[in-house]
Amino acid sequence: MGNMRFAVAFFALLGWTMTVSSQEGSLQGLAGKFALGEGLVVQQLGFDSDCDKSVSDAIASVAELVDESYGDVVDAVLLWWREDDGDLVDALVDALGPLADSGVIWLMTPKPGRPGHVEPEDIADAAPTSGLQSTSNISAATDWQGTRLVAPKSRR
User: Fold this and answer.
1) 54: exposed, middle or buried (C-beta count within 10 Å: 0-12, 13-18, 19+)?
2) Where is 25: in which H helix or E strand?
3) Dihedral of CA 105/46/37/4: which sign?
4) What is the pLDDT of residue 100?
5) Is 99 in contact with 134 (CB distance < 8 Å)?
6) What is the separation of C-alpha 45 from the centre of its chain, rounded to a whole number of angstroms?
7) Distance between CA atoms of 127 and 113, rounded to whole angstroms?
8) Which CATH number applies to 2-155?
9) Are residues 63 and 41 in contact, defined by beta-carbon separation less than 8 angstroms?
10) Which of helix, strand or coil describes residue 129?
11) Crossing angle for the helix pair 120-129 and 88-96, to the nearest 10 degrees
């Protein structure tokens, strides 16, 4: 954030202005919640009609968003998951396959009270079983929340 403030101050000093549409600004703001940047490859898994496309669009605005058919290493995984999708441990282990050693999995689940909500205890149980630990949570959209999962530092 410090570099952004410097750039804005420098532009102002020179009398330059930069117009960013409100849509671009909101996409970049949402993408910032995920701490994903340019040059990264993010694999999206489990996307369906109930998912919030604005989350995918935001990530695609700053990173290369690929689907499950992508056959190379990825920097992050965006895994959309609902209560009835099956075994969460299996899904997390599968998501680890193409993930770079320092990669992150963003587990997207419906918020409490929404159809398909996943209890926090289920995530807390599945993460260590699959070799991951939860580091943070975000409110990603009206109906979706994200849980950031990484491999413990001793395994990286």
Assistant:
1) middle
2) helix 22-33
3) negative
4) 95
5) no
6) 11
7) 22
8) 3.40.50.150
9) yes
10) helix
11) 50
User: Cβ neighbours of residue 141 under 8 Å, at least 6 residues apart?
Assistant: 30, 52, 54, 55
Question: Computed from CA positions of residues 5, 7, 9, 12, in that sequence, does the dihedral angle turn out positive or negative?
Answer: negative
Encoded amino acid at 88, one letter: L
Q: Which of 50-64, 88-102, 125-139, 140-154 has the lowest mean pLDDT?
A: 140-154
- Residues 64-94: b if buried by 16+ CB within 10 A, e if exposed: ebbeeeeeeebbbbbbbbbeebeebbebbee
**How do residues 24-56 score in pLDDT, each as one tens digit?**
445 567 788 998 888 999 999 999 999 999 999
Kindly report the pTM of this predicted structure.
0.81
Task: Judge contact between 81 and 46, C-beta under 8 A.
Answer: yes
Neighbours of 1 (CB within 10 A): 6
